[in-house]
Amino acid sequence: MTTNPAPSLETRFEQLLELVQAQQSRMETQQTHIEAQQSRITELEAKLASSPLPTQKQTAVALSPAHQGRRRFLQKVAGLALVSGVGATVALARPTTAEAKLSVHPTGQGMTGRVGALLQVSGAAAPTGTLPNTTKIGLIVTSDSTLDLSTLAPIYDMGVFGISSGGYGLYGSSTSNHGVAGTSTNYHGVYGTSASTNCAGVLGSNISGTGVWGYSGNYYGVYGYSGTSYGVVGNSNSNNGVYGISINSNGVYGTSTNGHGVGGDSTSGYGVVGSSTTGTGVYGSSNTYIGVVGVSTNSYGVYGTSTNSYAGWFQGNVNITGSITKSSGTFKIDHPLDPAHKYLSHSFVESPDMLNIYNGNVILDANGEALIELPTWFEALNRDFRYQLTAIGQASPDLFISEEIANNRFKIAGGKADQRVSWQVTGIRQDAWANANRVQVEEDKTEAEQGKYLHPEAFGLPREGNSIAEHHIPDVPAPPPPAPPPDKGVVEK
């Protein structure tokens, strides 16, 4: 058996060179064909753009068998596959190749201006169903291989409607500007809806910046509404859950029928932060329930501080179920003698005990005695009674307590007939809450409070660096400066 010798290296190189040259020649031929085809497409587009809209008769002729060959040719040349089957109410088209140049114009044939064009993936089935008669959409884009138009049921007219059953209906990305920007003169700039109970209609996410930012020149920066749950929820692991800015209205406004109008949650920061230069930082209002709720497990439910004004102002009654720690207490009223121009203030009566005071006046009987009846709950509430008696009108050196409190009564004796006597009784509270929460009269300051003062100014010291309040003030982060209104790609109306 004779074995053919292997071709030499030079022979193999020459063969390879011939193959490369042949491939290059074929590519040049294809390029020439593509350029000619592109020129033809441009020519056809110009003719189509200048042609008048076809009449019903022309439409019937164009769809006759005699014209089907021409139509298929135009479809092939233009790189488009016209889709029919939705009725004469929608003009539909989808590209057949990635290189196809798409230029679709509404024909107006039997249309009421509802849909300009429909784009589908290559090989997708013709859509079924029809849209509501009142809906108008400029462009419908879908990545699904099937589409039932009757299931869309959009409630608003829109320029672009993106549909996907498994991915993004519409996705935008930008390295230097808005990924998705929406603007509207009279309605929503961006609108999102979701039927899922654990997905968002609109979701904003950012690793190190703002997830969702709302800005408004004259109205709501962010508006949230819910029928049964949270209108707006903000969640952050290290910064603001929700941050909104508005020049002339609410930075963030939320309303809810049965749940929270605005709910904020944060792992290590503040669920909701409100800041204002000249107005209200946080404002809560309710007709039948709580305007603002503050809750904390290990810290302050609500914290208020002010350098030159009131840390808190309550216009109305205040109910406190715990204890109050204060430096002083007063009542302040309009002065009885000059209510229009002056105030009148009195200080509270203080004691180291939880002391209750009871007093009254009585007229002694013919024996110079009187039995004082006290409320039925008196002994249940008080213990360690103390008495004061004062004779009125004349001296009564023998006046005394003949019977101490028992069965919620005590007796005065030693006076003169028909003499007026003023009496006072005090008792220390012994109810369950008082017994469990006795006032600690003296206590050491905590380690962090050592060397600090509640009122350093009273001791001739500057407040800064010497105030205990500085230790208790939450480290509220300063809100970021307001970003300017969008000015690239989006113009505010």
Description:
The protein has 6 helices and 19 strands. It has 493 residues and is an alpha/beta fold. Among the domains are: 119 residues, no CATH class; 81 residues, no CATH class; 76 residues, Sandwich (Immunoglobulin-like), CATH 2.60.40. The strands form 8 sheets. The protein has a 3-stranded parallel β-sheet, with no helix packed on it. It has a 3-stranded antiparallel β-sheet with strand order 14-19-16. A 3-stranded antiparallel β-sheet has the order 15-18-17, with no helix packed on it. A hairpin with an 8-residue loop joins β12 and β13. It is elongated. The protein starts with 8 loop residues before the first helix and ends in a 21-residue tail after the last helix.
In short:
The chain is α/β, with parallel strands linked by helices and about 500 residues long. It contains 6 helices and 19 strands.
Q: Terminal Cα separation, in Å?
A: 90 Å
- Look at the structure and give the mean pLDDT: 74
Class per helix and strand makeup: alpha/beta
The global form is elongated
Q: What percentage of residues falls in helices of 4 or more residues? A: 10-25%
Radius of gyration: 43 Å
Sheet with the most strands: spatial strand order: 3-4-5
Question: What fraction strand?
Answer: 15-25%
Total helices: the number is: 6
Which key features would you list for this structure?
single chain, 493 residues, alpha/beta, Immunoglobulin-like, 3-stranded parallel sheet, 3-stranded antiparallel sheet, 6 helices, 19 strands, elongated, disordered C terminus
